[in-house]
Design brief:
- Chain B: One of its GO terms (molecular function) is ATP binding.
- Chain B: Keywords: ATP-binding, Ligase, Nucleotide-binding, Transport.
- Chain B: One of its GO terms (biological process) is putrescine transport.
- The complex is a heterodimer of chains A (269) and B (365).
- Chain A has 269 residues and is an all-alpha fold.
- Chain A starts with a helix and ends in a 9-residue tail after the last helix.
- Chain B is an alpha+beta fold and 365 residues long.
- Chain B folds into three domains: 222 residues, Rossmann fold, CATH 3.40.50; 51 residues, no CATH class; 71 residues, OB fold (Dihydrolipoamide Acetyltransferase, E2P).
- Helices cover 21% and strands 36% of the residues of chain B.
- In chain B, the strands form four sheets. Chain B has a six-stranded mixed beta sheet, sandwiched between helices.
- The radius of gyration of chain B is 25 Å and the shape is globular.
- The chains are: A mainly alpha (269), B alpha+beta (365).
């Protein structure tokens, strides 16, 4: 139908622009030179060993993982409550309440970060991993609600009623029927909030205190040219990890759909 | 003489409001133990709401719902002796057929073997023997329906509630399932309460039917009474086809009413043919299409006879519907005739004799 030529060129340029910088990451991560420039001078795994030897980096990775996992779990749990409430029950000022919960989605993050900082300092709270988790839960929750609401929405109400009718309590119905059926949504939600938290910079920068997260560490290291190849090595690992994580999530999602017999309406991949 | 069975469900002046909307307006009725009972009405008449008050999914604003003599106020759905077959079947998609059917046995103290046997029996009862291991979402509509039935019946409820269970099926499978439901109900002897908007389905399946309009029961009777002696013009219109003609009451005593109908003359009607509820439009009489008969050459009427002209012919294979404008009437009457081998279908414009009997009609006033 299309003439093809121009569309193909457009697609090629688009994909190159999107992925070329990422392909450069492993290239320079294995390049035996401190300067990031062509031509490549030789193969080395030196940057990876150096990276693994850096205690500050290890600490940053650890902090980031703790923050990302906690934020994902807390935000998804809150998201489950909120989505369930908004899709199943009617309560006064529902629209307003849901709107306020979703607001951080569009609020400038720097404003959120600064306000949180001011409030926390005003309350005399010490900045730590906990304060970063707090901030990340705040920005992740709207995403989890967006994902989980659609999962809860597509659940036939009579499935719950059938379970009550067959003798189950509301709690056991939730466990036996609702939870398994929204599980793909929950996994998506965990994964997306994990990813958001992992690469979030502004809030982490403001609220981390003396416990930098990975993005904050990377930012601080970029001032030293000698550290750049190590960052490249780190980036390579992160990209591989993301691809792996996404693949696992997609496998779970497809398996969930096959199990419940639903139609595949698209996912991450 | 039929022996009156004890009451299984009793509604005592049940009202239900959704905000300002008055969904149930004083329902008082009882459903007998072991009967196949239908709630019939157009959408929005409150029939599903009423069914859901039995199941416990819907609270009531005032009045009482009793099941087997016990007031159900405050008894949640999972503690009621009722089970439901949902319109969407509500088969749990992540479980197998077996797990679906056995779902309600989770809290049953019986051993695993006994439960497995019970599930197998239930599946056999609904004609799904050997389907236990299948994934529930891989079943056809008719099979889902059977799984839903087995899942509800395995708990041996006092009452089985069916919310438009056949509306999603094709005509052929629907008719087959109707007969199967009747067989199943006789077999298990459980009280069935069916909600339907399909009058034919209700007539075929039910022992008794409650016809509902706008949150009220308009008539509660067995199918034959409902069809032959509808309590109001609205009921008559909803169930089957009825020809209505304006009538004038000319004389009346304690047991009889005399009416004058254009094209039919004066008729002497007994008390059981006279119904209230013409909707405040004076009086009218109603004829079912099969109570009028077109007389072919040489046939003699059993009662009375009029002349008319055929204005429309609709051929259904086994039946032909004729619209006949009788001499002296304004509107044509619909007459249904069974087609008989060797007898031709008449053409539009044919002059014909029509036999009828005053005993077959109903007067609404």
């Amino acid at each position: 139908m299309f003439k093809g030529g121009w569309f193909k060129l457009y697609a090629l340029v688009y994909l190159t622009f999107l992925y070329a910088p990422i392909i450069l990451l492993p290239l320079f991560a294995f390049n035996d030179a401190t300067v990031i420039a062509f031509p490549l001078s030789g193969f080395t795994t030196h940057w990876f060993t150096e990276m693994l030897a850096d205690p500050t980096l290890k600490q940053a990775v650890k902090n980031s993982l703790i923050i990302a996992v906690s934020s994902a779990v807390i935000a998804t749990t809150l998201g489950i409550f909120a989505s369930r409430a908004s899709t199943r029950y009617e309560f006064p000022a529902k629209g307003g309440i849901m709107g306020l919960i979703m607001l951080p989605l569009v609020l400038p993050e720097i404003i959120v970060a600064v306000s949180l900082l001011v409030v926390l300092l005003g309350l005399g709270v010490n900045l730590s991993i906990l304060t970063v988790i707090l901030g990340h839960v705040l920005i992740c929750t709207p995403f989890t609600i967006a994902i989980l609401s659609s999962a809860f929405q597509s659940l036939d109400k009579s499935l719950e009623e059938a379970a009550y009718d067959l003798g189950e309590t509301p709690a056991s119905t939730f466990r036996l029927i609702i939870l398994p059926l929204v599980m793909p949504g929950i996994i998506s939600s965990l994964l997306i909030s994990f990813t958001i938290s992992l690469d979030e910079f502004i809030i982490a920068f403001f609220l981390a205190g003396t416990e930098p997260t990975l993005p904050v560490y990377i930012f601080s290291q970029f001032r030293f040219p000698s550290a750049v190849p190590v960052i490249m090595a780190l980036g390579t690992i992160l990209v591989c990890l993301s691809i792996l994580l996404l693949t696992i999530a997609e496998i779970f999602r497809r398996r969930g759909i096959a199990k419940s017999g639903g139609k595949d309406t698209g996912g991450f991949l | 003489m039929t022996i009156e069975k004890p009451e299984m469900i009793e509604f005592r002046d049940v009202h239900k409001y959704y905000g300002d909307y008055h969904a149930l307006r004083g329902i008082t009725a009882s459903i007998r133990a072991g009967e196949f009972f239908s709630l019939l009405g157009p959408s929005g008449c409150g029939k599903t709401t009423l069914l859901r008050t039995i199941a416990g999914f819907e609270g009531i604003s005032s009045g009482a719902v009793l099941i087997d003599g016990k007031n159900m106020a405050g008894v949640p759905a999972n503690k009621r002796p009722t089970n439901m077959v949902f319109q969407s079947y509500a088969i749990f998609p992540h479980l197998t057929v077996e797990e679906n059917v056995g779902f309600g046995l989770r809290r049953d103290p019986r051993s695993k073997d006994e439960k497995t046997r019970a599930v197998a029996e239930a599946l056999e009862m609904v004609g799904l023997k050997g389907y236990g291991k299948r994934a529930a979402h891989a079943l056809s509509g008719g099979q889902r329906q059977r799984v839903a039935l087995a899942r509800a019946l395995i708990l041996k409820p006092k009452v089985l509630l069916l919310d438009e269970p056949l509306s999603a099926l094709d005509k052929k499978i629907r008719e087959q399932m109707q007969l199967e439901l009747i067989r199943l109900q006789r077999e298990v002897g459980i009280t069935f309460v069916l909600v339907t908007h399909d009058q034919e389905e209700a007539l075929v399946m039910s022992d008794r039917i409650a016809v509902m309009f706008e949150g009220e029961i308009a008539q509660l009777a067995d199918p034959e009474t409902l069809y032959r002696r509808p309590a109001s013009r609205k009921v008559a219109d909803f169930i089957g086809t009825m020809n209505f003609l304006p009538a004038k009451v000319v004389a009346e005593d304690a047991n009889h009413t005399d009416v004058e109908v254009a094209g039919f003359g004066r008729m002497h009607l007994s008390k059981d043919q006279v119904m209230a509820g013409n909707g405040g439009e004076g009086a009218s009489v109603g004829f079912r299409p099969e109570t009028l008969t077109i007389l072919f050459d040489g046939q003699q009427p059993t009662d009375r006879e009029s002349m008319g002209t055929i204005t429309e012919v609709v051929y259904y294979g086994d039946m032909t519907y004729y619209d006949v404008k009788l001499d002296g009437t304004e509107e044509p009457m619909r007459i249904s005739m069974r087609n008989v081998f060797g007898r031709p279908v008449l053409d539009i414009g044919t002059r014909t004799r029509v036999a009828w009997s005053p005993g077959a009609l109903v007067l609404f006033r």
